[in-house]
Design goal:
Blueprint: E1 2-8, H1 14-22, E2 27-31, H2 35-40, H3 49-55, H4 60-70, E3 76-82, H5 83-86, E4 98-103, H6 106-113, H7 122-125, H8 127-139, E5 145-148, H9 149-154, H10 156-167, H11 190-193, H12 195-198, H13 218-232
Parallel strand pairs: 1-3, 1-4, 2-3, 4-5
Helix pairs in contact: 8-13
């Protein structure tokens, strides 16, 4: 049993990474299992909030129990998670997982996220908590991985080969492509957030350059870029 726990920020190709792992013959994937807990215990107003709360478990202890039960179904379980969703939880449940931090240059996150949500506090991006959590795991000798979205998009196949090698699993070429459209592993929130990835057919080569940031989000960008740079130092090249 191998549990890969992807800890990401929003708008960070995390869904594409989930789709990539869903193509594997040995892997079950789960989409943002703590989203309901996050919405229930925060004042954040996301699209479809009530629908999401009514559709999923919000007790983190039950969620954790269910995750470990799901891990028995296939040799590999891939959990797509958001850093902000687990903030405030006892993270001991991560001790038996392979924890992977997925980061992206913040101007891309802000530009994409602001198309769906107008008000973006730093906790929504989640980089400050991601860095703290990474440092906590290092102290526990957990040896978490850091993956940068820009590096992955720059060379998807080589990046996936290196990621799989670091995780101790065999790379499968099927991870590079999938059929466009909604997928069975999508959370109920997919209709609000996954339009772009639903148009995709796989991880394609793309060189990302920083985007212009609207003035209203510039202080958020300055906050986030410092945390991002610290995490980037540890990213798989």
């Amino acid at each position: 049993m191998k549990i890969i726990h992807l800890i990401s920020g929003p708008r960070n190709i995390s869904t594409a990474m989930m789709y990539a792992f869903a193509q594997r013959s040995d892997t079950t994937v789960i989409d943002e299992p703590f989203y309901g807990y996050y919405l229930k215990h925060s004042d954040i107003d996301h699209p479809g909030k009530e629908e999401i709360l009514n559709s999923m478990e919000t007790d983190p202890e039950i969620v954790i129990k269910n995750l470990y039960s799901a891990a028995k179904k296939t040799p590999v379980l891939f959990i797509k998670d958001m850093a902000k969703h687990i903030q405030g939880l006892n993270t001991d449940f991560m001790n038996k997982m392979h924890n992977v931090f997925l980061i992206r240059e913040p101007s891309h996150i802000i530009a994409s996220f602001s198309k769906v949500v107008d008000h973006i506090p730093e906790k929504e991006i989640g980089y400050s908590y991601s860095l703290r959590l990474y440092e906590q795991l290092i102290k526990k000798e957990q040896n978490p991985l850091v993956i940068d979205s820009g590096i992955v998009l720059g060379d998807p196949e080589s990046s996936l080969i290196k990621i799989c090698d670091a995780l101790g699993i065999e790379y499968q070429s099927s991870m590079l492509t999938w059929q466009p459209g909604p997928r069975q592993e999508d959370g109920i929130w997919a209709k609000y957030w996954y339009n772009n990835v639903h148009k995709s057919a796989g991880l394609k080569h793309k060189m990302e350059k920083p985007k212009d940031v609207d003035e209203k989000y510039y202080s958020l960008y300055l906050q986030s870029i410092e945390y991002y740079k610290e995490l980037l130092k540890h990213a798989i090249k």
